[in-house]
Design brief:
The complex is a heterodimer of chains A (261) and B (264). Chain A is built from 9 helices and 10 strands. Chain A is an alpha/beta fold and 261 residues long. In chain A, the strands form 2 sheets. A 6-stranded mixed sheet of chain A has the order 6-7-8-3-9-10, sandwiched between helices. In chain A, strands 2-1-4-5 form a 4-stranded antiparallel sheet, with helices on one face. In chain A, β4 and β5 form a beta hairpin. In chain A, α4 packs across α5 and α5 packs parallel to α6. With 264 residues, chain B is an all-alpha fold. Chain B folds into 2 domains: 37 residues; 221 residues, Orthogonal Bundle (MetI-like fold), CATH 1.10.3720.10. Chain B is built from 12 helices and no strands. The structure holds adenosine-5'-diphosphate and magnesium ion. The site of magnesium ion has 3 residues of chain A, from α1.
């Protein structure tokens, strides 16, 4: 049995009501799941079901109302060095070069400059941006910027990557290229990841398992193990004849195409 | 910059503005006389030049210019520091901004130069009232711009830093401070011209030093060329301050998209 990297035990998150006298909003309720070392798990569900809320709890920025989120066997109560997150927005700082942006997390953690630089340059190479180290973010395309954001996330060497729809702002082709890069990088580094997405094909192509969430209050209604070889090669996985049935299963779980207007 | 100067289009534009300057001086020299405008209304350029040379030796023009410039720079720097500090404090504390905003708004609407007589009553015919008016007038554009910049920072960037366990101080130096610089410099450009206005009004109100004093003196003596020379000297102070800011800005904000494109 592999070590468990990320675990949710009966996690519930409530937000205080906007107006006085109203009941608090229950964003997610009774979440239970485990992610083992090296696993890539996708999380899908309708808009507003609490996916981002779950990731925020994992990153330690927002505490859970009930239950506990465990990372590497430790209860998450504040930001910690075991996790790093990546959002749809690249959040690159415009006054820093790409290399300095990749170093951002290391700099905050007080890693010496020469070490930071070596790590950043290594990762930029891995993320296929070696020639852009000294460019500023505005000189890069959206896909390149998101690759730089991935490098920044990997730079702090987190045990778990939390990704919130990282590719949803990209055009379809760039997206596929980045999925391929991510799949390969995750396989090479053996990282554990929780990946939120709206894109059913992306979920199937990239992950070992897919967790499906219900409407708010969000809870996990299904777990699908993706039994297609080659997780390090999402492009091939997309083309696999096994992908279609998985998509159909997800569509019916999410009631896609059932609404009658 | 060097490559810009060798650009033929830029060279043509520079020749154009040089020719325009010659045309302007010629019109100034002979235009008024051609239309029968008397010299005490618009003195010709040569008369103003003669007056300039006379003032250099007889009226201690450089001394008065130096006094005014000193007051402008001191008022500008102090107003800038104060505006930046208050801008950051209010930007980071919504409560403080809520409590103080009506007073700030009132003070912002009040014409700052109207405070000059009050400051003269308080501090007499010294440099302090002039510096104080400059501080007051410089303070607002800087404060408002810095406050706005801190408010406009994407909260997700701060969350990203916090997820890396950044301290409040690190968030300030690595995010809030650099993010505030472009609007801060925009505020400085506005403040540079305002600072000169503040000091001159202070000098007009009272005292026997500075270009504002020469202005009232020239007016009293009916010496129009003297008033012209003084206005030009004031403009020169403003241009030098503005130019210095643009120079620093270009170095500090070299990462801004527009500038980066121009430099490459
Ligand atoms: N800070 C907050 N205060 C109040 N309600 C919130 C807050 N953050 C999220 N919510 C609510 O929680 C629910 C889940 O939000 P979110 O996790 O962003 O959904 P998802 O990422 O799945 O689209 C939403 O209905 C949202 O309105
Ligand atoms: Mg979301």
């Amino acid at each position: 049995m592999k070590t468990i990297r990320l675990e949710c035990r009966n996690v519930t998150k409530r937000f205080a009501a906007q107006r006085k006298g109203e009941a608090p909003i229950v964003a997610v309720q009774n979440l239970n799941f485990k992610i083992a070392d090296g696993e890539v798990v996708s999380l899908i569900g309708p808009s507003g079901c609490g996916k981002s809320t779950l990731l925020n709890m994992g990153s330690g920025l927002d505490p859970a109302s009930d239950g506990e989120v465990m990372v590497d066997g430790e209860k998450v109560i504040k930001p910690n060095e075991h996790v790093a997150f990546m959002l749809q927005k690249d959040l690159l700082l415009p006054w820093r070069t790409i290399r300095q942006n990749v170093e951002f997390g290391l700099e905050i953690r007080g890693v010496p400059a020469s070490e930071r630089k070596a790590t950043a340059l290594g990762l930029l190479k891995k993320c296929r941006l070696p020639d852009f180290a000294d460019h500023y973010p505005h000189q890069l395309s959206g896909g390149m910027r998101q690759r730089a954001a991935l490098a920044r996330t990997l730079a702090v060497d987190p045990a778990v990557l939390l990704m919130d729809e990282p590719f949803s702002a990209l055009d379809a082709q760039t997206k596929m290229v980045l999925q391929q890069d991510l799949g390969r990088t995750l396989a090479e580094t053996g990282k554990t990841a929780l990946f939120v997405t709206h894109d059913l094909v992306e979920a199937i192509a990239l992950s070992d398992r897919v967790l499906v969430m219900s409407q708010r209050p969000g809870t996990i209604i299904e777990e699908i193990v993706v039994d297609i070889p080659g997780r390090d090669n999402p492009m091939e996985r997309r083309k696999s004849p096994k992908t279609g049935p998985y998509i159909a299963q997800l569509m019916s779980l999410l009631h896609i195409g059932e609404e009658v207007h | 910059m060097g490559s810009e100067l060798s650009n033929p289009a830029t060279q043509r534009m520079m020749i154009g503005s040089f020719l325009l300057a010659i045309v302007f001086l010629a019109v100034w020299e002979w235009g008024p006389a051609a239309f029968g405008i008397p010299q005490f209304i618009i003195p010709p350029a040569s008369k103003v030049w003669d007056e300039f040379l006379r003032m250099l030796t007889r009226d201690r023009l450089m001394f008065h210019t130096g006094i005014t410039a000193m007051q402008v720079v001191v008022g500008f720097v102090l107003g800038m520091i104060l505006g930046m500090l208050v801008g950051f404090l209010l930007g980071m504390s919504p409560t403080a901004e809520f409590v103080l905003s009506p007073y700030i708004l009132a003070l912002q609407i009040a014409p700052k130069v109207a405070f000059a007589p009050l400051f003269v009553i308080w501090f007499g015919y010294t440099v302090y009232p002039k510096i104080l008016v400059a501080i007051l007038i410089v303070f607002f554009p800087i404060m408002i711009n810095v406050l706005g910049a801190v408010r406009a920072i994407d909260p997700d960037i701060v969350r990203l830093a916090r997820s890396f366990n950044a301290s409040k101080l690190q968030i300030f130096w690595k995010i809030e401070f650099p993010a505030s610089l472009p609007p801060f410099f925009a505020g400085l450009r506005i403040a540079a011209t305002l600072a000169v206005i503040g000091v001159v009004v202070g000098e007009l109100v009272g005292g026997n030093q500075g270009l504002g004093y020469l202005l009232t003196f020239g007016e009293g003596a009916g010496n129009t060329p003297m008033v012209f020379v003084t206005i030009i000297m004031l403009t020169v102070i403003g241009i030098l301050l503005y130019g210095a800011i643009v120079l620093i800005e270009n170095r500090v904000l070299h990462w801004l998209p527009g500038r980066a494109r121009r430099a490459s």
